[in-house]
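User: Can you predict the 3D structure for this chain?
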Amino acid sequence: MSKHGRVLVAMSGGIDSTVTAMMMHDEGYEVVGITMKTWDYANSGGSKKETGCCSLDSINDARQVAVDMGFPHFIVDIREEFGDYVIDNFVDEYMAGRTPNPCVLCNTHIKWSSLLKRADAMDCEFIATGHYAQIKQNNDRYYISRSADDNKDQSYVLWGLSQECMARSRFPLGTYTKPEVRQFAADYGYEELSKKAESFEICFVPDNDYRGFLKRRVDGLEERVAGGNFTDTAGKVLGQHNGYPFYTIGQRKGLGIAFGEPMYVTEIKPDSNTVVLGRQADLIRNGMQVGGVNWMKYDGFGGAESMESQTKIRYKSPGVMSTLSPMGDKVYVDFHAEVKGVAPGQSAVFYEGDDVIGGGIIHGSFG
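Assistant: Here is the predicted structure, written as structure tokens:
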């Protein structure tokens, strides 16, 4: 019988998940390793070699560590459930003129669901992953808090986890920095692993070319959307673009049209295949509406008319102080300072200090 119980560890073959498994094993948990096959690079049609978390080399690396440490390891094929939900949503969001965040969607609806289902089947009380974040508890509520490593903190992409998911999850790397984790791997005798490079790409877009992925995924896309207009904020036609799905809010480079000053994508209108361009000042927004909110530290507003938060609108954003107010089934966010590049489809995450109050999807913004 193990000291702390039986834990299912998600192992991609990378350094973070591998050290997670080692730590859980050393802490006295009965470890079961699992590697989830989410995507075949061959199906992406991209040019990059298969080197990511779904590659054969990565799967073999995860299995070798399990063999070395003497715990079981399983490979689970979830390509069908991953593709149907995450990839279809990715395509649909761009076709609707929004900018999706597939990693958030995968965490919320695929990865944890798949892990918990397999954990139950294998009699595991807990699951563990190599995320840089912490899980804390306030009375009867669980919530995500920032990691000790500001450069690696992943609390932003975990806002969608349910209370059940957090109650059964363990993030052993949350109190360590990346250099410390690399040193752990070296100390365990995995010198090569300790130097392993990280991947920051979307797993199903290995060449980082989402436009090429959309073209390969949607039949006849280029013909359907080519020839739309660039306009200024007053509606004056400035030229033609390659199709609205190939642009994102705040984009400046790659517009294919020259101006006497920097111009940015400020709005995307899919119904008319129009991409609106403006100056940097035209990206400024004073607030936004956020839907699909998942509350963490608190159960909503608790009857209050509003609450304060530091609000992040992108992963590397420092955040801005904001006032949150209920607005039907959405949250109205009033920024205390001007914010540039609010993109519908991206995540908005609300913080109280290091703690995640909740998060949701940006539905729209106002100037």
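Residues 47-51 have pLDDT under 50 and may be disordered. The chain is about 25% helix and 30% strand.
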